[in-house]
TrEMBL record:
PANTHER family per record: FORMATE DEHYDROGENASE H, RESPIRATORY NITRATE REDUCTASE
Keywords from the named record: 4Fe-4S, Iron, Iron-sulfur, Metal-binding, Oxidoreductase
One Pfam family this sequence matches: Molydop_binding
Location of the 4Fe-4S Mo/W bis-MGD-type domain: 1-57
Record gene name: fdhF
Protein name, UniProt field: Formate dehydrogenase subunit alpha
Signal peptide stretch: none
Superkingdom of origin: Bacteria
Amino acid sequence: MKRTLTVCPYCGTGCMFYLVSDSGRLIGVEPSTTHPVSRGGLCVKGWNAFGFVHHPDRLTTPLIRRDGKLHPASWDEALGLVAERLREIQERHGADSLMFASSAKATNEENYLLMKLARGVFGTNNIDHCARLCHSSTVTGLAETFGSGAMTNSIDCFDNTDLILIIGSNTTEQHPLIGSRILKAARRGTKLIVADNRLIRLARHADLHLRHNNGSDVALLNAMMQVIIAEGLEDREFIAARCENFEAFAASIADWTPERAAPLTGLQPGEIVAAARLFAGAKRAMIVYSMGITQHSHGVDNVRCCAALAMLTGNVGRPGTGVNPLRGQNNVQGGCDMGALPDVFSGYQKVSDPMVREKFTRAWGVDALPSTPGLPLTRAMDAAAEGKLHGMFFMGENPILSDPDQGHARHALKNLDFLVVQDIFLTETAALADVVLPAACYAEKEGTFTNTERRIQRVRKGVEPPGEAKADWEIICALAKQAGCDKMHYPDPSAVMDEIASVTPIYGGISYDRLDPLGLQWPCPDRDHPGTPILHIGRFNRGKGRFSPVIYRSPAELPDEEFPFVLTTGRTYFHWHTGTMTRRTHLLDREERRSFIEINPDDAARLGVRERDDVLIASRRGSVRAQARITGIVIPGVVFMPFHFTEGAANALTNNVLDPESSIPEFKVCAVQVRKAP
Ligand code: SF4
């Protein structure tokens, strides 16, 4: 039996475990007892992270579409065709008629290489990844406020803090090991405020549970901050020394009284006052948020308000404080760090900066690099639907299930001249592709992932990939060669990381020999640097923290007579995103086999719906069938639905409206009707 230390492929908590294999096949995992995050524990997904690896559905050979069907092909044939068609589209319609979608499931090295391929080989900044769908509002909002879009503190800080405000994060289900840290902290006396209109598990342990209306976070946070200033509870010393634009900000929220916020939030004014006093009274307070904050048409404004509340009370740059967006996927932080974004190279270095472009031009040995920021993924889907984008390359993404308004996503992809999908299974998106490239999964390759607390950790190969599948980094380099680029040769991923370190200041001190056993937290600018557990100590990355006035905007689509319910979407404990891996893991799939909605008992009684009845849910964009779960977890007028399932897909219903600054879709609020299925 062989044990291989690696990182969990599911959430951004970044637990490490040993893959246990026997005769080249995985037979289980064992948690790492010494790891600072796992500490000998795993959640149900971690314990079962080996379950899909040898599934018979794994892609084992490249596939090419001929006469409407996908047929097996050789690597040379498939990559030759991909290179030829992408070059053809580039020549005919321009480089910006191509789009490359990288992946938060792939390693840092692979994200960096796909970014290099898009920019350095095909000459476009049209490169993005699924952070667009989860935390692009964090990157925009926190970068503007603090100068860095990452979690400010470390997971260890949850053990030593006085108060945690959890807003828009179902932490025990989505980041279970962080959720259990929060529950342990609560048992030791740390106060909890949970702002979420679902009765999530953490809410049952909260000192205060605010069940505010979906999409009313700005009203709630502005009113809390109004109370803090009106009662003189703000940290004047911190504001004077560390922040700017406070006067304008204070003036902007002066009339956001709890009485004004009450009808918008659905809360009593007294609840808002109590939350404000409790938060401001804590010596050390942490804010934890996730997609309940970010996935709105005003997601950036929500993030600005969270950041302002932390600055207002002096809760940044110290242990046990900070603004802590919990990144969703295992390497979504790394995907952003590696510049799989349309406006920055690795390390958030802007493509519009001539000095930065000059540096990358020299390092990559290319003549020039594009200077205009490219298309965010969501805008690229719109462009494809309108016939303005002609070729797309998806690495490990499944937009048919993950993007809003499935009908729109399907139309966009079918409208392309050429679609390439590189993945481990024939996903709903791969089934539409012209060429499918079979990739190795996390357990079959080397590399690094960066977790939610900016910790860069080693991913190690435990078993061989199936059939002819190859690691994403190998496929990208082979494609670059087929496209005529002779500058993307690497003996192994460690050499890619050496190149990343040489051009990326926040990763400047990272090399594989330094990552054992616990990884390093960026920024880590040189080889002697120990890494940075807490950001913004003494000084914000941008100098002073900036208060930004925020104008309240309601969600884009609210219930009416025809569509009387709010639909909010999310995840369950047992499944992961589009279910590609967890639905092929027997023990996880057994727990949740089909799509469902949570509906309040009052609504169910009115509609004549009984527990486990089938219901039809319809929005202006589509309709699906799912099973009803009658529960007080949701309030009357709101239904919740997970988006993991292809049958009864929640994203057939969601609204493709985008935040104007971050282009994130509004997955958390749309209007639907619900009726008992015939
Ligand atoms: Fe994996 Fe996240 Fe569970 Fe840890 S908490 S085992 S990283 S899914």
